Design the sequence.
């Protein structure tokens, strides 16, 4: 048991774990995370199954990485606990009495013969120390007066504060991962949607995109209303960096797009042999319209892809949700279907040569209008508060550890023939040079007074 | 005076500063070091003006693309150089630090870096842009000083000089580490939570910040608790700075992720 404890509290383990965590983290940035099986086979070939087996495709959530983190946390816990007890004792009820030879072992030390009795020397010394900001304690034992003077004792706990902060951060990450949720909700203006694990719903009242004069996006603004069963309770316009929170759930402006499934399309139809004929039609996807060409032709739009591309099997698909290459699949009917073909907004000439060529008609995709959609990220993250508490403790701890050094001076006064012999020595957790200078200054002050 | 004139003038002053600093290091004449310091400070003043001018013209923080952030990193290293040389009186490192500043300014001025100030995308419109980037880069600037001190340590033969450099490296890490933790990790997490709704996404830039943090944590633990000093400490500090550099620079060009601004 003792050996197990010693193992888990050892700095060797901490250093080993830091090195392993670093190496694992590096590996996780070299292997792309969370990609498809095909991407891994393309990249790793025969090693793919090994990569997937070792969970290198989701390294930071893999069992072995979490075990490493768990060991790291355990190491910190044991380390902090074993060191905290003695430290608290040292801070609260320190040993005041020491042997003169233990003072002689310290680097920063001084001894002086004062020409006054010990009692006077003691109050003199205490005054000088108090003026320099030291809290003093004293005890008399066997004719010797022992004085312990310290300042910034709280600085001893800097590293503990950092470590406890880290533990709270790890715990916060665990809480976030286990009990939080995040989900995207895609809404068009006027639409409402459910909020997971909640009684209330969310409605998008308005969604606007503001642009800079140069064309870049300045802001996406979604006006949201929270709907309880009793009715609307809260409205706010959110944008990136300015979310809305309600009952622990936060709503973030995550993305935007268009509702392409209900695109409204303007198509111009012309007859090849009749320049006078021009029919402008506005059709929604799934609708059919009469071309009024005297031959009872009806036109329907069956598909719309914002970013048309031919897939692996030559079947049309969309590459993205951005309108990079808008295309509509149109079909013509004269009783039954007699042509079908794609028309492209960016390539009007291309449209005429494919599919629709025999119909005697040409078509142009003149306009397309889809309703903008706003993607709202719904986030419930009960771990976040722990993260902020942990961060505060880490920062406070770093401040204490680096900039709140504990300085300690011990002195022993002994009286021989009415004159006090003073031996003093000091130690500092940090800033030893400045402490040595202060120690020398205090010694000089004592000599000057006497 | 325009921003680019000021920037160019600062560049020239930095070169002169480096010259005088290095002249002190490599000659027996020790009187020229103060000149290096004051020239460096003058360069810093002009550079500051250039940054202020750019901020007032663009209306946003002067670190939203690679050119701006390189310029700001150069400014921070020049500042850290002035502070450490003043505080510790070690002109030896001034020359090398000024060389880093010059390299950064030259890189920023290269035609590969687009210089026009683009309006801010929605994600960057936040007070956290100021806090996160400025504090992180200041921390990294002190890592740069620790890096130079560690390299000088590794190259030095004389014990007194080595002790000075070892001490300086540690003191710079003691400044850089809390700044980097606060700016890079804490402020970064706060901003991510505010903008994306998640404080941590294991994005390559985030992971590399964490790696940098681990390396310097290793530096501190081996040094303070295990009493490692000197060579091994210096090597860790060098690795730490290289990790910080990769976080700052390499991640953008070699790995892709969420953090695609600069």
Sequence:
């Amino acid at each position: 048991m003792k050996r197990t404890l010693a193992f888990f509290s050892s700095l060797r383990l901490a250093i080993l774990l830091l090195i392993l965590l670093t190496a694992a983290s590096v590996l996780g940035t070299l292997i792309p995370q969370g990609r498809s099986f095909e991407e891994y086979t393309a990249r790793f070939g025969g090693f793919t199954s090994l990569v997937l087996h070792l969970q290198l495709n989701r390294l930071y959530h893999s069992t072995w990485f979490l075990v490493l983190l768990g060991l790291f946390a355990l190491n910190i816990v044991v380390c902090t606990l074993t060191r905290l007890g003695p430290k608290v004792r040292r801070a609260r009820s320190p040993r005041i009495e020491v042997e003169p030879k233990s003072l002689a072992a310290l680097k920063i030390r001084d001894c002086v013969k004062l020409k006054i009795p010990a009692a006077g020397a003691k109050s003199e010394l205490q005054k000088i120390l108090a003026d320099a900001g030291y809290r003093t304690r004293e005890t008399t034992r066997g004719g010797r007066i022992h004085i312990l003077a310290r300042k910034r004792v709280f600085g001893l706990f800097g590293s503990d504060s950092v470590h406890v902060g880290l533990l709270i951060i790890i715990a916060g990450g665990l809480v976030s991962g286990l009990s939080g949720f995040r989900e995207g909700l895609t809404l068009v203006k006027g639409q409402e949607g459910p909020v997971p694990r909640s009684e209330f719903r969310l409605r998008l009242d308005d969604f606007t995109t503001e642009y800079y004069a140069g064309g870049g996006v300045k802001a996406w603004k979604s006006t949201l209303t929270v709907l309880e069963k009793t009715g609307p309770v809260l409205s706010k316009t959110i944008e990136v960096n300015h979310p809305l929170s309600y009952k622990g759930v936060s709503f973030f402006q995550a993305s935007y797009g268009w509702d392409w499934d209900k695109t409204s399309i303007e198509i111009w139809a012309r007859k090849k042999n009749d320049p006078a004929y021009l029919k402008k039609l506005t059709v929604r996807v799934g609708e059919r319209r009469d071309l009024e060409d005297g031959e009872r032709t009806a036109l329907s739009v069956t598909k719309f892809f914002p970013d048309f591309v031919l897939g692996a099997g030559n079947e049309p698909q969309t590459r993205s949700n951005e309108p990079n290459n808008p295309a509509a699949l149109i079909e013509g009917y004269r009783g039954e279907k007699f042509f079908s073909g794609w028309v492209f907004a960016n390539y009007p000439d291309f449209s005429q040569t494919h599919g629709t060529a025999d119909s005697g008609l040409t078509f142009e995709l003149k306009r397309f209008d889809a309703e903008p959609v706003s993607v709202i990220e719904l986030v419930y993250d009960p771990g976040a508060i722990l993260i902020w508490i942990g961060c505060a403790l880490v920062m406070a701890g770093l401040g204490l550890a680096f900039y709140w050094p504990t300085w300690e001076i011990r002195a022993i006064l002994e009286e021989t023939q009415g004159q006090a012999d003073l031996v003093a020595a000091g130690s500092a957790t940090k800033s030893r040079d400045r402490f040595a200078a202060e120690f020398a200054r205090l010694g000089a002050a004592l000599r000057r007074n006497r | 005076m325009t921003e680019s004139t000021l920037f160019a003038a600062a560049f020239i002053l930095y070169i002169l500063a480096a010259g005088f600093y290095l002249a002190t290091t490599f000659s027996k004449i020790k009187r020229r070091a103060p000149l290096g310091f004051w020239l460096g400070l003058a360069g810093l003043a002009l550079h500051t003006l250039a940054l202020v001018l750019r901020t007032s013209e663009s209306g946003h923080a002067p670190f939203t693309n690679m050119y701006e952030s390189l310029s700001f990193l150069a400014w921070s290293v020049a500042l850290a150089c002035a502070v450490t040389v003043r505080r510790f009186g070690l002109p030896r490192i001034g020359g090398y630090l000024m060389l880093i500043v010059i390299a950064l300014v030259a890189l920023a001025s290269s035609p590969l870096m687009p210089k026009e100030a683009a309006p801010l995308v929605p994600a960057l419109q936040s007070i956290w842009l100021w806090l996160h980037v400025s504090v992180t880069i200041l921390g990294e600037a002190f890592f740069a000083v620790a890096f130079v001190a560690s390299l000088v340590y590794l190259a030095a033969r004389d014990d007194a000089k080595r002790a000075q450099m070892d001490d300086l490296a540690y003191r710079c890490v003691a400044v850089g580490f809390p700044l980097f933790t606060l700016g890079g990790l804490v402020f970064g997490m706060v901003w991510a939570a505010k903008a994306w709704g998640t404080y941590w996404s294991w994005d390559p830039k985030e992971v590399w910040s964490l790696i940098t943090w681990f390396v310097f944590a290793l530096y501190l633990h081996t040094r303070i608790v295990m009493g490692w000093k000197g060579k091994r400490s210096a090597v860790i500090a060098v690795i730490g700075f290289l990790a910080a550099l990769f976080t700052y620079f390499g991640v953008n060009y070699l790995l892709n992720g969420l953090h695609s601004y600069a």
Observations:
- Residues 134 and 168 of chain B are 23 Å apart (CA to CA).
